[in-house]
Amino acid sequence: MSKWRNNNAWFLVLPVFAIVAFSAIIPLMTVVNYSVQDIFGPGQRFFVGVEWFRDVLLDERLHDALFKQLAFSFMVLLTEIPLGIAIALMMPKKGWTASACLVILALPLLIPWNVIGTIWIIFTRPDIGLFGAIVNNAGIAFDHTASPVDAWITLMLMEIWHWTPLVALLAYAGLRAIPEAYYQAAKIDGASSWAVFRYIQLPKMRGVLTIALLLRFMDSFLIYAEPFVLTGGGPGNTTTFLSIYLVKIAVGQFDLGPAAAFSLIYFLIILLFCWLFYQALQAVGTGDKA
């Protein structure tokens, strides 16, 4: 007896295909189209093949922006992931203090990105800013608008303050999901705090830490609003990351072809690093099973 098939169910997923096509595929295909053409105006466009990709890949300013972007993202990850785990481990497990800590921890995540930059401009000003004035009154010259080192320090402090709570909240959720029986077994075996962390908590948090690592890498690699508001890419080009440089090409110079090729290369770089991080994290701990 043949089974009757009702293909009408496919109509239920058509809205999903339409939304995905409108939100992702069509804009992506538009960028691909621009990346292989030289556009002078409406109806005036010429096919150039991979010329824009070659020019962008040979652009030394892009190499410089890419190096700074990678340095910034890796410093963010090396700081925020361990710090977020440490904060999660120190937080209360239950009671009103746990709820209060969660609310306070989430506050920086509720502030819009451009407001974050404005807050840190005022906070670090050497004349009236609380942080800037205290540091300068202590005899340490600090001005993020004039010193490249001070600009990087300010950017790192701002990023850590803004996004470490996300890592801490994810790590805290992972810790709370560990069954109490694991801790009781470790207590019976006389395991130290480090052993509990190394062999119980860290492996059990691998899933949430994978999410935290990928989210924080993608966000720090795509960062634009905060450094643009805080430093505008300066002093000079010391904080001109890939996103700021891309906007200069696309909006400032209105070079749509190179900007489109730049966007696709930017997209592929992010995909490559996310895949590498994901593969590396999936491999963590699997050697113990052998």
TrEMBL record:
GO biological process: transmembrane transport
Top-level taxon: Bacteria
Location(s) in or outside the cell: Cell membrane
Stretches that traverse the bilayer: 12-36, 70-90, 102-123, 160-178, 207-225, 259-278
InterPro entries from the UniProt entry: MetI-like (IPR000515), MetI-like_sf (IPR035906), Sugar_ABC_transporter (IPR052730)
Ranges in coiled-coil conformation: none
Gene3D superfamilies: MetI-like (1.10.3720.10)
Membrane association type: Multi-pass membrane protein
Keywords from the named record: Membrane, Transmembrane, Transmembrane helix, Transport
Gene Ontology cellular component terms for the protein in this record: plasma membrane
One Pfam family this sequence matches: BPD_transp_1
Positions of the ABC transmembrane type-1 domain: 66-277
Family per similarity comment: Belongs to the binding-protein-dependent transport system permease family.
PANTHER family named among the record's database cross-references: GLUCOSE IMPORT SYSTEM PERMEASE PROTEIN GLCT, TREHALOSE TRANSPORT SYSTEM PERMEASE PROTEIN SUGA
Protein name per Swiss-Prot or TrEMBL: Trehalose transport system permease protein SugA
Gene name tied to this protein: sugA_1
